[in-house]
Amino acid sequence: MAKADMLGASLWDAYSNKVTTLMNNPQHQGEIFEADAESRGHKLIVADFGAESCGDAVRLYWEIDPSNDTIINSKFKSFGCGTAIASSDVMTELCIGKTVQEAVKITNIDVEMALRDTPDVPAVPPQKMHCSVMAYDVIKKAAGLYMGVDAASFETEIIVCECARVSLGTLREVIKLNDLKTVEQITDYTKAGGFCKSCIKPGGHEAREWYLVDILADTRKEMDEEKMKLAADAGANGKFEEMTLVQQIKAVDAIVDENVRQFLIMDGGDMEVIDIKKGDDYIDIYIRYLGACNGCSSSSTGTLYAIEATLKEKLSSKIRVLPI
Amino acid sequence: MQVYLDNNATTMVDPKVVEAMLPYFSEIYGNPNSLHKFGTASHPALRNAINKVYTAIGANDEDDIVFTSCATESNNWVLQSVWIDHIVNGDKNHIVTTEVEHPSVLSTCKFLEEQGVKVTYLPVNSEGIVEAHTVKSFITEKTALVSVMWASNETGMIFPIKEIGAICKEKGVLFHTDGVQAVGKIPVNLSEVHVDFMSMSAHKFHGPKGIGALYIRNSQSLSPLLHGGAHMGGRRSGTLNVPYIVGMGKAIELATMNMPETMAKIRTKRDRLEDALLELSDTFVVGNRENRTPNTILISIRGVEGEGMLWDLNNGQIGASTGSACASEDLEANTVMLAIGADNELAHTGIRLSLSRFTTDAEVDYTISHFKNAVARLRNISSSFAIQKPTKGGEVLECELHHH
Prior knowledge:
Order of helices and strands of chain A: HHEEEHHHHEEHHHHHEEHE
Shape of chain B: globular
Strand order of the largest sheet of chain A: 1-2-3
CATH class of the largest domain in chain A: Alpha Beta
Oligomer: heterodimer
Strand content of chain A: 15-25%
CATH superfamily of the largest domain in chain B: Type I PLP-dependent aspartate aminotransferase-like (Major domain)
Radius of gyration of chain B: 23 Å
Number of strands of chain B: 12
Helix content of chain B: 25-40%
Number of helices of chain A: 12
CATH architecture of the largest domain in chain B: 3-Layer(aba) Sandwich
Strand order of the largest sheet of chain B: 2-8-7-6-5-3-4
CATH class of the largest domain in chain B: Alpha Beta
CATH topology of the largest domain in chain B: Aspartate Aminotransferase, domain 2
Shape of chain A: elongated
Distance between the termini of chain B: 40 Å
Radius of gyration of chain A: 33 Å
Number of helices of chain B: 13
Largest sheet of chain A: 3 strands, antiparallel
Helix content of chain A: 40-55%
Structural class of chain B: alpha/beta
């Protein structure tokens, strides 16, 4: 938020002239009929994407020359707002003359770029980016129908943010490399989540399979687990200072079991580790005496000294043992 | 020709209102709280404006009408102060409202839920209203407040405020109504209807923006939202907005004088427009005409997406609005349309046309013609009316984009 955000932007004023022109007068709006295509020796492919109940629907028509897989003609029909109609129009324009294999490489960015008046000014405001994504999706679907494969097979990686086309792999890598802790940071680093915002968390424009909040949480968890594993390895190598708290307690217990507990039990007592606090100079181990040890005079002198000396020797010279 | 048919969003300030306000900017500008004559010079006009507002809504001399900055402030004030007075510092914990309230009510309720308050959001029935017996069935002994709008901004449907008021009175529960869409459009007489608090806003009845009011029955207690110099009897601090209060007084007087005649004229134009648009195939209008504010139409046009329609109307110099929202930040379908049981497919096809006393017959004719042209053009582009069926496997069975 800043001065520029104090007055809500006018949505329509953010459209490029091309969007406005094509909305008012789309060039490729219309239908191609199967009988007509066949009479010309061509194959007709018709694919739908979206639905009226979503607020956006597009139907893409491809008349294909089967001898060379070339899209001879393309039309569209659209239930949608201005940018949906303009995006569909540009999409059909981009398809005409291409082979199906070439057309399938058209992305939403290509569609959006084709709608720009100047290369560095977006054609539509962020919340309208999904319109160009629909164009991308319906092309995949049409190509899948023609080639007899699943549309999903054209997608080599999982795209989390459709608007900025950021993949799951990229997101995980960037979170790890830069130790990102918030979704805002992810958006700053990758642009994911910066446009229609659907991929940030459930409840946005569209339901998504992957959400940035979950990816962040999962990746952070993975990073923590890696850290733990490093700590565990460190523990195995006997570096007490680098162990996690649980590892430290286990290590202390193990030493106590091996060297101390039997003598306490012989005297009718025992002890337990309550807590371990790591300071800069000392590692304080808080213990509690049980049974006969509780109140025994040597528990604060000789026995305590013996426990501390053993732990210092076996684990770390920084250890202090404090009975409570 | 330019046609403004978005009068439920805001209205043109009546030139007579502007005229009434003008002396209170540079001629009579004193602070009404001052002792000197510069300050007191505004008192007659303020008293006059206060009288006009009391008269217009049938308020009693024992009642308070406090001027605020807008109805959003009035709504926030009631909800937040009832929370402080009766929930934080009392033994209640529950508020009853509806799913279709203005955001200033719904967002405040969400905020209160975060503070631990239980809020019941009542759905509207197939006619677009919440029935009184539904409200009754959700009131418990823990209920601090019932807040139900008098008329819907989106559909114009009029809620049974008199019945709900009687129920709240009987149950001893405070009753607030957002009267923004009712005042100036339908008779509002608080001497006959039991309401504890009512919010209103001048710019919905040809007054200026930035001035509203809260009616408080019988001067009952309600902690202030704005603390400060104890203006308006300590109920709402902030130097009195003299010209705007004068403007609101004038506007409410103009809007309520001869209301039956004025509204009959608007209703005639509205009905003519509605009948003409319903001649289009595959259209329907939300809510019974008789139980609607006389200026409002919410029409659904199958196969024509709302924002696309607004675009074409705008190209024809017609200003309208859509409750559905390919346009807005959230792409939710029109919740009212879903609530009244419209098909999912129609939830993005709502167009709201709201007239005013300044709407002319020529404007209605122009709108009918442009509206029909726009529907024809957009249906020609629409996939909903395409003939050639998709290739096998190319159909969409479920909404792939967002799931409601």
